[in-house]
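Hey, resending since the last one bounced:
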Amino acid sequence: MKTARVVAFGPLFFLLACGGSSSPPPAPNAASAVTADIPLTDSGPAASVAPSSVVDAGAATPTANADNPACGGSDVDLAAVLANKQCRPERDAPPTPASATTDVKVTLTPSATTVKPGGHIDLDLVVSNVGNAAIPLYFSGDLTLSVSVTDPKGKAIAPPAGNAPKDADPSCMHKDCRHAESHLLLAPGGKAHAKLGWDAVNVAWPSKGPTTCCTTHVDPVAKGSLAAGTYKLKISLPYESNQGNPADAEISVKVGK
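The structure tokens again:
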């Protein structure tokens, strides 16, 4: 039985915009499944910033049936799984095995390795199970898929420094919110995939927070084009735990004319 509930923060933009008390979240349950496409709800990014796959926690609701066939398989839409509340894990779920650190591979492939300042590239994210047994993976917190960026000098420039703004609506402090949760059962030889985007721009947090309650993600806004140079883009999946996870994927992209 899973008992640890530690939310990892890496390249993802976190904001827990809710108040009041919340009940402990249920632990995960694995499910075998086939692929299904689920519409993804996305509030949309600020202008000139590549969109992220966004999942908000929402108000506290009973855990849905995690045996939904959309929650795993051999060819999986990862963003759809993260958006599907029926993929919330249950209490009797087996933990992610130690073999996940070697059997699960995460890759990030850009549509181009060179981009003009202010330009855009697409990113293909693939999570592969190269082992011979199904592997359950559990996710929690801000379920946004987006990259962190460091400049040619190694300085982190995305997500922006500091904290994202909180809810603009004071009444959100009285809402009973919960962390978003999801799980995926990746079949042997299976792959989970998602498409992301990246714009070669500087970013900063917006001046105002979200106007909807229980929103855990805030998109940064563009603040001018990046200077020429080689930038490193890295993605860390929003795993439930910050230990025993597959290695992150990192690539280099040259910004220039």
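Residues 78-83 form the longest helix (6 residues).

Sorry for the duplicate.
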